[in-house]
Automatic annotation (TrEMBL):
It catalyses: 6-phospho-D-glucono-1,5-lactone + H2O = 6-phospho-D-gluconate + H(+). CDD domains: 6PGL. This is 6-phosphogluconolactonase. Belongs to the glucosamine/galactosamine-6-phosphate isomerase family. 6-phosphogluconolactonase subfamily. Its EC number is 3.1.1.31. InterPro entries: 6-phosphogluconolactonase_DevB, 6PGL, Glc/Gal-6P_isomerase, NagB/RpiA_transferase-like. It comes from Nannochloropsis salina CCMP1776. Pathway: Carbohydrate degradation; pentose phosphate pathway; D-ribulose 5-phosphate from D-glucose 6-phosphate (oxidative stage): step 2/3. It comes from the Eukaryota. It is an enzyme of class 3 (hydrolase).
């Protein structure tokens, strides 16, 4: 059974093309949010994602002073620790963007255990959103783990049933380190848009299990061209199967768009690496 409502899968023919597409997507969302609401609130994840965001430092026309950064999940380690998601994002690209330090919401480890850090983070997140007159993050960027987890929401974990907290502590994460904080389903689903970035062959079987494609699932243009490399991305419309055991595919924004970005390896379950002419449209002339 499929849900109503299409999701969009973008396949980058090369790593550079994928990075260019992702950077353009975020820059476009940022410019639009800043034009309409005076600020852009972006949530980042860890894992391999920071390395897919490096092209953000080249995008023009974003008023970075009006951009606010938070983390979908964070490991309870010092901010300069090699396991810190902030540290990974900071060294990959954040430290080269003129975002005021006060606009970056990092965890406060002095709060104590994971749950106390989570409560403090939730308080500061809600205060940030309230100042900007909203209850939702503009763009949530998420990864997908090989077991189908996202942020620090793992298959079968009690946190999947959380309905009240926006941020929760976890002390038994199957992916090390075990102590983390994570945004919950309610916080993630309230976002204006959710964008998954999941690359590599390990994601192909998850996408195969989760996504359905119609033979006429060609989508049209979305954005203006910003780079020639981005022309090597293809856009495929899909739907998500129901009753999947993977938390990643349970994160669907209540309103707003849901995107998946992957590379040729991640899309290798599709015929011709997902680039079949009957199913896709090159994004060069319209999308980017
Ligand atoms: C974390 C991440 C986590 C990650 C996935 C995918 O802090 O561990 O936020 O949810 O996004 O595990 O990681 P990869 O992109 O490395 O596969």
């Amino acid at each position: 059974m499929e849900i109503d409502g299409a999701v969009k899968l973008v396949v980058g023919a090369t790593t550079d093309a994928l990075k260019a597409c992702i950077a353009t997507h975020i820059a476009t969302a940022a410019r639009s949010a800043i034009a309409q609401r005076g600020r852009y609130i972006l949530a980042l994840s860890g894992g391999s994602m920071p390395h897919t965001l490096t092209r953000l430092i080249t995008v023009p026309g974003v008023d970075w002073a009006r951009v606010f950064i938070l983390f979908t999940d964070e490991r309870c380690v010092p901010l300069d620790h090699e396991d810190s998601n902030f540290n990974a994002c900071n060294s990959a690209f954040l430290n080269r963007l003129p975002i005021p330090a006060g606009n970056i919401l990092t965890i406060d480890n002095s709060q104590g255990a994971a749950e106390a850090i989570a409560q403090d983070y939730e308080k500061r997140l809600m205060a940030l959103l309230a100042v900007h007159g909203t209850l939702s993050i503009d763009t949530v960027l998420l990864g997908i783990g090989p077991d189908g987890h996202t942020a620090s929401l793992f298959p079968g974990h009690a946190l999947l049933c959380e309905t009240k907290k926006m941020v929760a502590g976890i002390t038994d994460s199957p992916k090390p380190p075990p102590e983390r904080i994570t945004l919950t389903y309610p916080a993630l689903r309230a976002a204006q848009e959710v964008v998954f970035i999941a690359v590599g062959v390990a994601k192909a079987s998850l996408f195969k299990e989760a996504l359905c494609f119609s033979t006429t699932s060609v989508d049209g243009p979305r954005e203006e061209a910003e780079s020639a490399e981005a022309a090597d991305c293809s856009l495929i419309t899909a739907t998500i199967r129901e009753n999947l055991p993977f938390p990643a595919f349970q994160v669907r924004p209540a309103s707003g768009e849901l995107w998946y970005y992957t590379d040729r390896e991640g899309a290798s379950f599709l015929p011709a690496h997902g680039l079949s002419q009957t199913q896709t449209e090159k994004m060069g002339t319209g999308f980017l």
